[in-house]
Amino acid sequence: MPDSSRMIRRIVGSTAGIWLISLLAFCSYCQKKDCVSAWEAGAFGIWMIAVFAISYVLISRIVNKTMERVDDCIQSLIDGQPDQQFSTEEESLLGKFQMQILKLYRIMDRSREMQEQKRGELAEMVADLVHQVNTPLTNIQLYCSFLTQDDLTETDRSQICQVIDSQVEKLGWFADGFGKAARLEGDVMKIRPETQPVLDTVLQAIDQVAPKAQKNGNEVDLLGDKKMNACYDRRWTEEALFNLLDNAVKYGRKESAIVVELTAYSMFVRIDIKNEGDVIPRKDYNKLFSRFYRGDNAALVYEGVGLGLYLARKIIMEQGGYIKVSPWEKKGNIFSIFLRKR
User: Fold this and answer.
1) Torsional sign, CA 114, 118, 123, 128
2) Does domain 191-340 match CATH 3.30.565.10?
3) For residues 334 and 326, is the Cβ–Cβ distance under 8 A?
4) Which has the closest alpha carbon to 244: 272, 285, 212?
5) What is the pLDDT of residue 292?
6) What is the dihedral of CA 12, 14, 17, 23, to 10 degrees?
7) How far apart are CA 129 and CA 123, in angstroms?
8) Angle at 17 between CA 15 and CA 20, to 5 degrees
9) Could you give the maximum distance between any two Cα atoms of the chain, in Å?
């Protein structure tokens, strides 16, 4: 369909030409006659009015059709089925308007999809939490019923109380981990990476885990380039580093060293956390960072609920980095954080 603005220009040009020709013809007619009758002057006026009226009707029709097409374009966006009403090949104002509104539609549609995805993830996380919390609650209820028995010895009663206490502590870990996950989900848009030294954040994370490491007999060794910078959010990255160090203490051998090594590459900064202990099978690498996932031995022996690695990976990925795990010379494991330099 021809460009409406071009058609309007043609109508206006044609109208101006007819008006000019008619005016020159009337003036020439007037020069030939000494006196022009009122009827002749009125006829000329009616002719001019008719010319302009026809031009107005034609332009109004073009404008109305154009607005109908604009309305159809907007309605197609509302219906979720974008339909291009104007040619994108011609550099017309309506074509540009259509492209801009289609871009806005795609942005809003993408935002809606992201919101739905976030709601789905949150609902899934709540469902997982309810499922995980159900086990300690059931255990607490069961062991509380045991306490009502009159034939319990003091030793049995003490052991039951210890079990109940451990289950209550597990509920506390769930609440703490879920609170951090929910805060990260809601605070994800507030992550503000900026270029800053890496050493200070690493030292803060080490200081947080130091009491537990000392109790376990672990010494934390810091190696590598201590002057490198990276682009990251300090608050959340410190949380991720603490989670990895906390795991290194919980799952590492007692009286062994935990090594934190810093390495700078051309585009990334690498932070390795190495601990001695049972080597994680390669088949479990993809499961490690899943929410609430814990290995068979870990679930039976160690504290925790399986949210630390999930939170660490999510924090680092939101900043454009990544985490990987690898064996450490057949005597332990290495968890590596990669942060962008800029």
Assistant:
1) positive
2) yes
3) yes
4) 272
5) 67
6) -80
7) 10
8) 110
9) 137
Do the Cβ atoms of 132 and 171 come closer than 8 Å? no
What confidence score (pLDDT) does residue 229 get? 93
CATH number of 120-189: 1.10.287.130
Residue 185: band (very low, low, confident or very high) from pLDDT cuts 50, 70, 90:
low
Residue 231 has pLDDT above 90, yes or no: yes
CA atoms of 222 and 291, how far apart (whole Å): 29
Which of 186, 258, 181 minimizes the C-alpha distance to 219?
A: 258
Residue type, 8: I
DSSP annotation of 333:
E
Angstrom distance (rounded) from CA 255 to CA 213: 9
Residue 188 near residue 221 (C-beta atoms within 8 A): no
Average pLDDT (47-68) is: 86
Q: How far is CA 128 from CA 115, 132, 188, 253, 306, in A?
A: 20, 6, 20, 31, 11
Alpha-carbon distance 258 to 218, whole Å?
7
Q: 84 in helix, strand or coil?
A: coil
